[in-house]
Automatic annotation (TrEMBL):
<comment type="function">
    <text>May mediate accelerated ATP-independent bidirectional transbilayer migration of phospholipids upon binding calcium ions that results in a loss of phospholipid asymmetry in the plasma membrane.</text>
</comment>
<keyword id="KW-0449">Lipoprotein</keyword>
<keyword id="KW-0106">Calcium</keyword>
<comment type="similarity">
    <text>Belongs to the phospholipid scramblase family.</text>
</comment>
<protein>
    <recommendedName>
        <fullName>Phospholipid scramblase</fullName>
    </recommendedName>
</protein>
<keyword id="KW-0564">Palmitate</keyword>
<dbReference type="Pfam" id="PF03803">
    <property type="entry name" value="Scramblase"/>
</dbReference>
<dbReference type="GO" id="GO:0005886">
    <property type="term" value="C:plasma membrane"/>
</dbReference>
<dbReference type="GO" id="GO:0017128">
    <property type="term" value="F:phospholipid scramblase activity"/>
</dbReference>
<dbReference type="InterPro" id="IPR005552">
    <property type="entry name" value="Scramblase"/>
</dbReference>
């Protein structure tokens, strides 16, 4: 554990990570877009990290699903331990040379890995890469991401795309909650012995999937 980035020792024994978006009262009532805030918890519901998205009002209003952002993830002591950086890129399969790419740093300033969107005419596909840009895992989503009153699963697979080792799930949390707050609730399931840096990258992948497929949806309605 002495080789772990500071703050990532919390992830060392986790095989399930829950991400819950906190919705501000003003945003829920008036629909006013504010910077996203998240709690990152273990399977017992105990908060492990707190995340805040940083960007401008211009980005949120005009570039919402493809907006650039920096998400700063801090531990319970307030120490920033993970930084997720997403540049403004295309979100269309018509432009395969400029698809989504997200960088995850831990500690901030040190690359932990990347999430790279792969071109596919039918399915959402991503590659998880380590700090050296070597491919580690694949993420493959369903043909339709607007599940009807049910969870939506993005499978985490080995590089051969044959073996499933985990998943990122968008939890459907009820009609009233989704329609009036459009809150995000995700679960990440990965092997407990997965490199903690890659677990941190998986958290970044979860944020990317949320913005690409669920930011402006009614989540299954």
């Amino acid at each position: 554990t002495h080789d772990l980035p500071p703050g990532l020792e919390y992830l060392n024994q986790l095989d399930q990570i829950i991400i819950h978006q906190q919705v501000e009262l003003l945003e829920a009532i008036l629909g006013t877009e504010t910077s996203s805030k998240y709690e990152i918890k273990n399977h017992l519901g105990q908060r492990v990290y707190f995340a805040v998205e940083e960007n401008g009002c211009f980005d949120r209003k005009l570039c919402s699903p493809i907006r650039s952002f920096t998400i700063r993830i801090a531990d319970n002591a307030g120490r920033e331990v993970i930084r997720v950086i997403r540049p403004l890129r295309c979100n269309s399969c018509c432009f395969p040379c400029f698809l989504q790419e997200l960088e995850v740093q831990s500690p901030p300033g040190t690359i932990a890995g990347y999430v790279v969107q792969n071109w596919d005419p039918f399915l959402p596909k991503f590659t998880i890469q380590n700090q050296s840009k070597e491919d580690v895992l694949k993420i493959i989503g369903p043909y339709a991401t607007c599940g009807c009153f049910e969870d939506v699963d993005f499978e985490v697979k080995a590089l051969n795309e044959m073996t499933t080792i985990g998943k990122i799930s968008k939890y459907w949390s009820g009609f009233v909650n989704n329609v009036f707050t459009n809150t995000a609730n995700f679960g990440i399931q990965v092997p407990v012995d997965l490199d903690v840096r890659i677990k941190a990258v998986m958290i970044g992948a979860c944020f990317l999937i949320d913005l690409m497929f669920f930011e402006n949806s009614l989540d299954g309605l």
